[in-house]
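A quick word before the example. In earlier lectures we treated sequence and structure as two separate objects. From today on, think of them as two lines of the same record. Here is Two-component system sensor histidine kinase YesM written that way.
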Amino acid sequence: MTQRPLPRNRSASASRSPGTSRVVSPTNRPSWPQRLFYSISFKRRLWLTFVLLITVSLASVGTIAYLIAASEIQRTALQASRDTVNQSAQIVSERMKNIGTAVRALMFSDAFQDMMLDVQRGDRNGYYKWLSLLQPAFSQVKFNDAMIHSMLIATPIGDFYPTSNVRSAGVSFYESDLYAEFKTQGRGFWTSGHADPFFKDGERVVSLVAEGVLDVSDHMRTLDVFVVVNVRESDLVDLFMDSLSQGDKAYAFLDSSGGLVASATIDDAAYDFMNEPSFAERLTPAPSGDFFFRQDGDDYLVNFSRLPVKEEWMIVGVQSKAKLLAKLSGIKRATIAVVAGFVLLSLMIANRLTYVLLRPLFQLQRVMKRVEENDLDVRYESPYMDEVTQVGFRFNRMLEEIAQLIDDVKSREREKRRAEFKALTAQMDPHFFYNTLHTIHCKSVLGENEDVSEMILALSHMFQLSLSGGRERITLREELEHVGNYVAIQQKSYERLFRCRIEADPEALNCLVPKIMLQPLVENSILHGFSDRGEGGDVRVAAELGADSLLLTVEDNGSGFDPARVRERMTNPPEGKHGYALRNIAQRLQLFYGEDGAAFMLEHNESGGARITLRLPREEGGGREDAGENRAHVRD
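And the structure line, produced from the sequence above:
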């Protein structure tokens, strides 16, 4: 004999027996709010559900209405503030543009151009003449824009300015910060607010610095001449503040770094955060924009607009979000009052409503209590046609079918016993018994006493295992011994016809299986698969253990069969005993394990013969002390 054990499945575990109780994990237990909710009556749960539903619905509607109103007010305020700031930025930008235009007109005046010729020649003799001739031009520029406080034309031959302003002696433009800034930028620019260094009154001004040009021969020449126009800082602030009418907002005139262009424009100390770097970082390079800024736990709506004439400057508006939404406080109070009123109303009507809705259920409950007292003649009656009534009518139908179900159960038990009896008698076919005795007789006459002894012993073991003390299930080890005894007898009767290989996982030998399942399958292979040959047959019986199942396979290299036809014969059996063994096994599997507990599969194998596979639930019940003595083996 040769041994060929199958691979051992180390991950396999014993399946739970049908009688084992289910263990509930602590993580699956309901929480204490759930236990509290489940402990109260259904009527109270329904009542509580009504109250909660009405409360949540009203609160949701009120909250949504409040949020919509808040969003609309916020959007409207944001748009109004954006429009106001943009309008102010346009006004300031136009005014600054007009000042720039006036400066260009000054530089192209005859007096300025003639003065530039002396500058070009370096002639200082005409200084007082040009100082006098430029006064009308200065007056015209100041007349065109009343915000202009003073002007200064700095040239290498002397400074020119309106005589109405008192010049600060010893303060040269070419030594000032404005000149250094011009050399850095290389072009004209506007300055932020500062004290006027060139005139004695020291007025805080915003200055425009431009380079003077000489218009000769169709081209411009620069001669290190500069025109400085000083605009009163207070007048510039008043210009854009006059168009900003909202009293609950603060406005500022800032540059890109967040610094003030004109001082005293933040009229509320609460908005000092506009000077912080984190605030300046939110002022994007876009021409205009808006965002929310959070400071000290409060939110502020910020919008800004850059001046088209000088994009580094912008007008910024800031408004507290709390003040913006202050108008909604009345809506909030009204919403709370309405929700509270409807909750009180729901408390008054919910109790009566739950009683009306649950009346059919209470009636069904009374009927069920009478059934618990073994009164099976009671019936549910109700004038309603709701879902509870439909359940009651189905309960009536269930009562009517209980007797029939009891009869069906009894009938199934009788059929089960009859099927088991037929299975036991079918496995010990009288023809097999007679043929075995005839073979024993012939061999005894021929003096083959050793074969006779083996056949008698095998036949005795078959009887013993077939009876198995009245047990319905035996271990796989015993089932394979039964198959081995049967094969031993058949090999003595049909010498050289076939050989049988039995391969089993050692751990599978202790699993419980319905008795006499495999021997009829082996018999089917011998009698039908090898009916047209005299030798060379090969039967393989295999048992493989899975994680929760046991696979039993019987296959041969015989003439095979048509699986579809065999299944049809099993479903609609013809007269006689043909196909009875397979049908009997399938029925017994269904009796033992139900519709889906086991599988019975018919198919062809690689050699064209038949392969029958049984998949059973894994259930161990035998000992392991002799597992090593029952490893896979081959019978020849």
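Notice the following. The longest helix spans residues 42-107. We will return to this example when we discuss secondary structure assignment.
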